[in-house]
Amino acid sequence: MTTSEARALMKSPAPMVSLVLGRLHSSEAFTFSSAPLELFSTVSIDPDRFHYSPKAEEIVLTKGSLGVGLALDGGRGSVYGDRPIVVKRIFEGGSAAKSGRIKVGDQVIAIDDVSTKGMSYLEATKTLRSRPEGPVKISIYSRV
């Protein structure tokens, strides 16, 4: 896509725009997901209203140059008070979306065996971003 085509596309009206930026390694293949729109929504209500499965799940995602494809929210000092870290958004084309095992609203309890209990949103995000490229184990309680 040329720069002028991208500019025209960004200026055109659309109900939703998915924008993924970054540099791919030549060995990485990129495909768009056809997952339902709700997979890519964001958490905009009090996460304390969610119900979670009692059993933790461990999911291994692959961190690439664009991360693992999810955003976090909640934590110590959040707008809703001290809350667990939750998945705020899943980005189309990322490892989290491709796995199909993580949902918006799932509670993240550990990142590579580092507990997120008592962390702020920024601390949890820094922990996730500091992982090297490659496999990253995310432990969650699934939202039910």
TrEMBL record:
Organism per entry: Toxocara canis
Protein name: PDZ domain-containing protein
TM helices/strands, residue ranges: none
Span of domain PDZ: 58-130
Pfam families named among the record's database cross-references: PDZ (PF00595)
Coiled-coil region(s): none
Organism ancestry: Eukaryota, Metazoa, Ecdysozoa, Nematoda, Chromadorea
Classification via SUPFAM superfamilies: PDZ domain-like (SSF50156)
